[in-house]
Amino acid sequence: MLILQNKGGVIMKGLRRFISTFLVTVMAVSLLSACEKPAENNSGSSTKQSTAASVKSSAAKSGSTAIDTSKGNNPVAGKKVAYIMIMPSATIFQMWKDSCQKLCDALDVKFDFFFCDGDFNKWQDTIRTCASAGYDGLLVSHGNQDGSYVFLKEILEQYPNLKIVTFDTQFYADGEYKKLEGVTQMFQQDKSLVTVLLDRMVEKYGKGVRLVKVWRGPNYNSPFDRREAGWQEYEKAGKIKTVGEVQPLQDSVDSANTVTAAYLQSLKREDVDGVIAYYDLYGQGVYNAIMENSNFNGSNGNPLPMASVDIDPVDVTNMQTKPEIWTAAGTTDWTLNGEIAMRLLMLEMAGEYDKIYDPATQKKGVDVVEVPGTAIPAESLKKDSTVENLGNIAGETYGNLSYVSEADWMPKDLIHK
């Protein structure tokens, strides 16, 4: 059921989500026939290939694609790894994937990747199938807070030689924070990704700025829960006031557009100062809804400003086109993020945990790694700005090569020569 929340009440629309439950009665490989990944062929085009087919593939990477690391006695050559993302494919996740691929090619490691359409069951099934198929390492992303710990603990008990690095995945069980021995958890500094945007709103409108937030609600995924911590901190301090909340039904632009458009019909422009979207895909839907409404797009009075977490080419274009509406994005360099994460997995497989580096604390030998966030203001963008060259206008926290972990056989400039 679609729920649009105001301080004055709850607006309920007669929309219902249909949830299909599938009885698992076959082996793990057949379980994943619906969880597909784009697999790049030699010509560079993309095709769809099922997990079952992927895990059976034994084709080795061509030796000509790998950088010579023989002097460092490359301990991961010939290993097989996979990147498993719970969310649907998006530009930033493709940037992550491409970076992982490049590092794996340089180290002669076989690489596969899977996007699971926001379905936690598919995410679990993909991990289970890859583990049973003999992958050496898995980089798993965006597991939910409530179920990831118990599931991954069981996987590691069944496959003790498997190495796992998680991204944007918290471990909780019975209401308590947990650890998994040998698993490195990587995060963006999600709290700061929201607070850098809130700071801009407070600076412009003053303490008590009235805001609407757009997210999927608590316990949907770990990044949103961590971002919500920043929102709650600012609200408790009186820096912001929550006017309302919009929850898309799906991780799509259309869903965010639909629910936001409906919400705006219940809202007066004079009662709100801005909108913060916890995910840029939602931000695109919010932007479209604002642009379609004359009471909020600037046709009748002042336009309603918004900002979002994460960034992609559509966001950059919208910020360049309407900076008075899409005012900023809070993000990290997703190309570098992929490399940072895959380096962590390489070090785990090499048994060199002491070389794992956290840029947030500047410490080594840690099991939690956080990448500092950066605000990208719309007014700072240039005509030729793209997601790929944001480093030209962003602060020093964006795309900082010093954030990566390294080893003699995996120097910082390995794929940056």
UniProtKB/TrEMBL annotation:
Matches recorded under InterPro entries: Bact_Solute-Bind_Prot2 (IPR050555), Peripla_BP_I (IPR028082), SBP_2_dom (IPR025997)
SUPFAM superfamilies linked: Periplasmic binding protein-like I
GO MF term list: carbohydrate binding
UniProt main location, coarse: other
Annotated ranges, domain Periplasmic binding protein: 87-351
Highest taxon in the source lineage: Bacteria
Compartment(s) where it occurs, according to its Swiss-Prot or TrEMBL record: Cell envelope
Pfam families recorded: Peripla_BP_4
TM region positions: none
GO cellular component, one term: outer membrane-bounded periplasmic space
Family (UniProt): Belongs to the bacterial solute-binding protein 2 family.
PANTHER family assigned: ABC TRANSPORTER PERIPLASMIC-BINDING PROTEIN YPHF, D-XYLOSE-BINDING PERIPLASMIC PROTEIN
Name of the protein in question: Periplasmic binding protein domain-containing protein
Organism, as annotated: Catonella morbi ATCC 51271
High-level lineage: Bacteria, Bacillati, Bacillota, Clostridia, Lachnospirales
